[in-house]
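Pinned message: reference record for Pseudouridine synthase
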Amino acid sequence: MRFEWHYEGPPLKLGAFLRQQGFSRAQLKKLHYQGGFIFVNKRQRNTAYGIRTGDRILVQTAPEQAADSVVPYPHDLAICYEDDDYLVVNKPAGVASIPAIGRKNDSMANMVKAYLIKTHAESQAVHVVTRLDRDTSGLMVFAKHSLAHSLLDRQLHSEAFLKQYVAIVTAKSPLPAHGWIVLPIGVSQGFYMRRIVSTTGKPSVTEYRTLAQTSQAAAVLVTLHTGRTHQIRVHFAAIGHVLFGDDLYSRQPVSFERQALHCAHLRFWQPLKKKWLDIQAPLPKDMAGLAERLQLPLRG
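Predicted structure (tokens):
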């Protein structure tokens, strides 16, 4: 990958400038030892070189090695956004985000690798920025190279990165129009895949707005302010509003073929293109059908 800058500022070490642009120390070492190059005003320099106003800096990174463990799986992707740095796809329910031991190589990561090969992408390494549970649908972000990945990682759990979900939950009691769930989440001692509200857990914050509700169900727009495993499912179960179809956190499974949860909206700063991205994925047919059966007026 090739990156260029026109430097304007006080005298500064080249390495410090590149770290400001998002390069980690490990990435700078790769530039030195694995075939990358750094040029200032068309002359090759090392990271200790001092740069000044007016200098033109060019970085050519070493080719990224794609992991052999991720086998390409050709499959149609629902692409919601794509540029040189990021790929955002609408994941269907029932598909894993990444490969797992003992399972088929048909995860979203496998599909994206096949897509990168098909489109002759400069890097065919798969960088998963955001994940979703197998039975959660919606928007997933992949980076196309390591710098794009590390830059977006800095935003993930900040106010700059907005991630919103639509969930359909049971509603034995009315939900307020706007609410917060602030409960720490930890790992269950008896079942490592299950998460629980625990005083020894990590701080976890979920915000929601009620989109529609009846005496039996509610549709909510959920904004995550922390990124714990199963956070939405655990938090709503903890306040007595379990997600439809969530047989892991419901004592009495609620009829639906998967947890009724969809990542519907992402907004983040594209750090290399210097612009905001606002991406939406419509409600999938199964959740739209559930909302209709429950008489919750939602648009698909």
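Pinned by admin. Summary line: The longest strand covers residues 261-270.
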